[in-house]
Amino acid sequence: MTKNETIRIGVGAVVFRGEEVLLVKRGKPPFKGHWSIPGGGLEFGERLEDAARREVMEETGLEIEITGLIGAFEAMPEDIGQLTHVVMIDYHAEWIAGEPVAADDAAEAAFFSFDEARERLSWDDTRRAVSMAIEMREQRRNR
After folding, report:
1. Could you give the residue numbers annotated as active site?
2. Largest CA distance in the chain
3. Contacts of 105 by beta carbon, 8 Å cutoff, 6+ apart
4. What CATH number was assigned to the domain covering residues 6-141?
5. Would you write out the chain's pLDDT as a tens digit for each of its 143 residues?
6. What does the domain layout of the chain look like in residue ranges?
7. How many Cα neighbours within 13 Å face the side chain of 111?
């Protein structure tokens, strides 16, 4: 690995409010202008779930409850056009309080129907994470 090559660990959350899911439009490079789930980098000494809650709060002002793990996803350097390999740990969560207000590195933040959210998302892995979260949520409800 050269000095310029980086491995990063990130966290994200698929946040539900009723039959809607929260998305943010990225306001800064490298993903500026693309819709995604809220998330960002893990800080040293921070637990993954705490990082997910913090990132949602920083980007949208919302309070959430983590309800489960979706899985781990990767963005390889060739996928994002940088010398960065990103490992994302994504959770599903329920909205507790607040109205979405874009902040930190989010240019916009809003809840969308499941179908509209999937259409807006820029990456297949994020669409897959949202679909997996919806399925997990339905399985929990049907128990």
Report:
1. 108
2. 50
3. 26, 27, 28, 40, 59
4. 3.90.79.10
5. 555 688 889 999 999 999 999 999 999 876 789 999 999 999 999 999 999 999 999 999 999 999 999 999 988 766 656 677 889 999 999 999 999 999 988 999 999 999 999 999 988 899 999 999 999 999 988 98
6. 6-141
7. 14
